Amino acid sequence: MVMVQQTTTSYRSQTGYAPIDAVRYGQAALVEPHHHSETDILMYRMSGAAGATGMTEAVRIGDEPDLLFLSRGTGMAAEGKVAGTRFTLQANRDLRATFVPRGVDTSVTFAASAYSSNLMFPRNYLTSLLEGRNRDGFRPITFTDEKCIIQLYQLLEAEIMAPGFASRLVVEGLSRAIAAKLIGIDPTALHLEADRIHLPPWKLHRLLEFIEGNLDREIHLKELADVAGLSVFHFSRVFKHSTGASPYRYVCEKRLERGRSLLAKTELGIAELALSCGFSSQSHFTAAFTKAMGVSPGRFRRERRL
Known about the structure:
7-stranded antiparallel β-sheet
């Protein structure tokens, strides 16, 4: 947790992440940063400092990354300006989502006691996930109560906080779903299209062999879709119809299976074993393994050798 520090004109956090620290506040706040190393997405939670009262302001300039945040009303009205257009939000206690694209200046005046969870996406990340479907670019969305966006955000937040065995696939999939929702792509139409696609056995065999041969590195959803010769918008649903599991769940289970086998049958150190399972660090592997199995890798190994 980082206390926002005061500059000559406002308060800024000092997390060491430039996009987060570029946001200026009217009062001191607490900022808790998190970095998803596999995608470079930044997440931070912002809350008012102890004893914060009255109103405060958050300001960011347009060159900062695409920003999506969730905030819950405090029972006080809020107001601000997005891309030069003023808005007013009546007093409420609802959970709402706001999206501010890169290139859009934003200022919001709100209760100093408020809390928000924020996601900052790397430059062009969301656009790249849409495969050319975002010709008109993203537009700001202010304080929507759209349940789908809120639920997707919460799933993405949970994965960033506790990455699993196929975290990149999860984060990419959720981010793509968010991006599609932001530009108004109809998921029902995509599902109907995917339901008409059949994956031949030879293609499925080639795809599963590709996964098995690349468990020791990051696997992108687009790579899998390309191997199958499908659009990323159809791939996950077609894959699940063919295997009974989502791409994320399938890769997760295969990596977990490899991790269990290596722990039980080899003397590999945990750090080396983590690399063999596609993790960049021992700590990430240990956290994901413990989350999946309920015991640490070291304890699992000891118990298998009793």
